[in-house]
Design a protein that fits this description.
Elements (H helix, E strand, L loop, with lengths): L43 E5 L5 E5 L23 H18 L25
Antiparallel strand pairs: 1-2
């Protein structure tokens, strides 16, 4: 019996690396989040990680959908299978990250032939 990759047994999780790239272009995305004149989300906070890398973290990440964040599952069209939706979103995410010259550390690491995975997070 073959498994249809478009109908997983459980809803997959997007491999978000919390790079902040999409949070810097809210003026180009239809959303209800507050942002400044550059398009940067009001809830995005700049930090320096223990390993010295700069990072931008969402101060409301765990509740972002409640604040009006248009990311991920909150905007998935009902008629598009999860696999196809995430494949498109992962490609779009990569393009945004490249445009902003982000470190490759933040690029989502995925194998879309099996399941979505995330790179290991650094210890904080």
């Amino acid at each position: 019996m073959s498994v249809d990759k478009n109908t997983p047994n459980e809803e997959p999780t997007f491999p978000c690396t919390q790079c902040g790239a999409c949070c810097r272009i809210l003026d180009q995305i239809e959303c209800g989040l507050p942002y400044d004149e550059t398009g940067r989300c009001y809830y995005l906070v700049d930090v320096i990680k223990p390993d010295g890398r700069r990072a931008s973290l969402c101060s409301v990440y765990d509740n972002r959908v409640e604040y009006g964040c248009p990311t991920l599952n909150s905007v998935k069209p009902v008629d598009i299978p999860w696999y196809d939706y995430y494949k498109f979103m992962i490609n779009a995410c990569g393009l945004i990250q490249e445009q902003q010259s982000l470190d490759e550390f933040y690029y989502p690491q995925v194998d879309l032939t099996t399941r979505l995975t995330q790179p290991p997070k650094s210890e904080e």
